[in-house]
């Protein structure tokens, strides 16, 4: 075993703290199945896991590595990644429920990151335990809105697990998760503050052919035509003249009589199920309603790009052929494209490129190719995708 004074200072200090640990011991299982289920379902790690899966899991599998999330004590709650790597990791006790705290297994990225409360990268024989020496790992602690450590995110594998960009990817993923934790904390119920400015209903139109109008705990499924009318009106808060609305919905500015009859039917539905939402005339305008499009575009405006992508369920009314809906659809796609390309970060571009819209956008894929590290396993697939989109 290498002498501590020949190691990096951070690692040498960890080895000295690990002097009482048996380097040949196997990590003990500290959490049972019920405790693991509870940790994944409730609390801060339940917020972290969907972000980790969305942003890192595909790349982890492609790179032949293992991704893990541990609690604040260093006990692994979730482990996934490439199948071969997972099986190999099981031999060293890197499994859900195992205790990887530094005082249990010695120097390792997750345990030492938690001990120091800072990101850590540990290469192969810098590990204290003998069984872990064939591996390298990067880990980043996770904090709640108050700054308390609630867990750790770890990537374990070969030398790719400790490349410089790996630490940036994990840190960005943790930052996205911490933002969601802070948002959840800010929504803790308190005294109600009535406001006339807040819309009383939200229209869900992303990724669904027919919209759902949500009014507190009630849901109203709308017809395809009523969905189109509300999407177009919501996109024009100053209102539209009858001919313009007819053109946007029917593709025919002369279909005003048909439009008026449909608006009457829509008003009846709203009066019965959502009296706070009204459609006025001259010009046609909708009030008392927000949409999930507003939510994702607001997140983009705040610079919360990963949050916006996470909430993007798909194109606006994907089955609609209405010209006005198509225009809103293109507007949302364009806003995402401009935002993630302007941001220029690997994390934002990767997140959008994983959606069907982003995956079909050559400009986004080219921007991602430009910022990916040269050794990234994603590069070959990106080149092939770009060539398929743009032709020979």
From TrEMBL:
Keyword set, alphabetical order: DNA-binding, Transcription, Transcription regulation
Domain OmpR/PhoB-type stretches: 217-286
Top-level taxon: Bacteria
Pfam family, one: GAF
Entry-linked Gene3D superfamilies: 3.30.450.40, Winged helix-like DNA-binding domain superfamily/Winged helix DNA-binding domain
Keyword hit for Transcription regulation: yes
UniProt keyword Kinase, yes or no: no
Signal peptide: none
InterPro entries, sorted: GAF, GAF-like_dom_sf, OmpR/PhoB-type_DNA-bd, WH-like_DNA-bd_sf
SUPFAM superfamilies recorded: GAF domain-like
Name the UniProt record assigns to this protein: GAF domain-containing protein
Species per Swiss-Prot/TrEMBL record: Curtobacterium citreum
């Amino acid at each position: 075993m290498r002498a501590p004074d020949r190691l990096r200072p951070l690692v040498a200090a960890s080895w000295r703290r690990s002097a009482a640990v048996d380097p040949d011991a196997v990590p003990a299982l500290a959490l049972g199945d019920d405790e693991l289920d509870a940790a994944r379902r409730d609390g801060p790690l339940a917020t972290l896991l969907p972000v980790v899966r969305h942003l890192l899991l595909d790349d982890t599998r492609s790179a032949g590595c293992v991704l893990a999330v541990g609690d604040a004590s260093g006990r692994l709650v979730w482990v996934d990644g490439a199948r071969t790597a997972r099986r190999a990791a099981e031999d060293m006790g890197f499994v859900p429920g195992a205790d990887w705290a530094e005082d249990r297994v010695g120097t390792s990225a997750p345990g030492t990151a938690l001990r120091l409360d800072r990101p850590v990268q540990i290469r192969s024989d810098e590990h204290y335990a003998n069984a872990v020496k064939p591996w390298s790992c990067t880990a980043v602690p996770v904090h709640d809105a108050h700054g308390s450590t609630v867990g750790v995110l770890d990537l374990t594998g070969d030398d790719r697990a400790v490349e410089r960009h790996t630490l940036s990817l994990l840190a960005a993923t943790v930052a996205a998760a911490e933002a969601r934790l802070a948002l959840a904390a800010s929504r803790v119920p308190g005294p109600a503050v009535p406001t006339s400015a807040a819309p009383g209903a939200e229209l869900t139109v992303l990724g669904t052919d027919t919209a759902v109008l949500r009014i507190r705990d009630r849901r109203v499924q709308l017809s395809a035509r009523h969905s189109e009318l509300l999407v177009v009106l919501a996109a024009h808060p100053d209102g539209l003249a009858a001919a313009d609305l007819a053109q946007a919905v029917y593709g025919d500015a002369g279909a005003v009589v048909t439009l008026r009859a449909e608006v009457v039917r829509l008003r009846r539905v709203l009066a019965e199920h959502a009296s706070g939402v009204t459609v006025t005339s001259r010009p046609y305008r909708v009030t008392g309603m927000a949409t999930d499009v507003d939510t994702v575009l607001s997140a983009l405006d705040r610079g919360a790009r990963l949050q916006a992508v996470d909430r993007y369920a798909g194109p606006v009314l994907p089955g609609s052929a209405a010209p006005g809906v198509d225009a809103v659809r293109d507007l949302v796609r364009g806003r995402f494209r401009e935002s993630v390309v302007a941001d220029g970060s690997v994390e934002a571009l990767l997140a959008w490129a994983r959606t069907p819209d982003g995956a079909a956008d050559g400009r986004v894929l080219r921007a991602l190719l430009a910022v990916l590290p040269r050794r990234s396993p994603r590069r070959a697939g990106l080149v092939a995708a770009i060539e398929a989109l743009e032709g020979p």
